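subagent[fold] <- orchestrator: predict structure for attached chain, return C-alpha cells only, no commentary.
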Amino acid sequence: MTTTTSLVIADDHELLREGVKKIIRSAPGLRVVGEAADLARTLALVAQHRPDVVVLDISLPGHEGLEGLEELRRAFPEQRVIMLSMYAEERYALAALRAGAAGYITKTMAAEELVKAIRKVMEGGTYIGPRLAELLAQEACAPAPQAPHERLTAREGEILALIGAGLQIKQVAAELGISISSVNTYRNRIFQKMGLSTNGALIRYAVQHGLVE
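subagent[fold] -> orchestrator:
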C-alpha cells in the first residue's frame, strides 16, 4: 500500500501556490491538505492537519527573513519544513538550516527539484541542492563566526543597533513601525542569543563592535 505524504503550502502569492500545487498533483503519493497566505493561517492548518511537510515561503506578510520559520518551529518543533525563497542560497540557506529547515529551494527551481526535496525530507534527510552543498563546503573550510551578533536575524540586528544607539524601546518601535511588545519580544531573543541581560550590556556590546555610529 502506497503511503501518501501530506503537505501544507504557505505563500502569499496565489499564482505561486497554484504552481506548487500543480507540481505536487503530478507527483504520485503527494497530497496538499491546506494552503495559506500568512503565518497565522499556516499555524492553524498545521495544528489541524499535522502535515508531513510544510512548504514555507520565506517572506510571508509581517515576517522578515527566517522569522516565520522560527515561529513555526517554536510552535511545532518536530514539523518538517522546506523553505521556498525568492532569494539565492547565499543569503538565507545556511541560516535556514541552522534554524531547523529540512531544505531550502529557490522559486526558480525546476519542478522535479521540489518533488525531490519533499521525498528526501520524508526519508528523514535534509535536502541540499548543488549550490547549497558548495556553501556548506565553504563554511566547513572557514573559521566559525566569533561574534554573537552574527547569529541575529536582520530585524534583530536592526533592533540591536537602535538600542545600541541609545534609543528607548518606544522610540525603537516608532522608528521601525512596530509595536512596543514586538520590540520587547525581539529584545528578549537578542538577549538569549547573545547571552546578555540588560540594555546597558547591549549598548556596550554595540559600541565595542562598531554596530553604531
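orchestrator: received. Logging for downstream: The first strand starts at residue 5 and ends at 10. Strands lie at 5-10, 30-36, 53-57, 80-85, 103-106.
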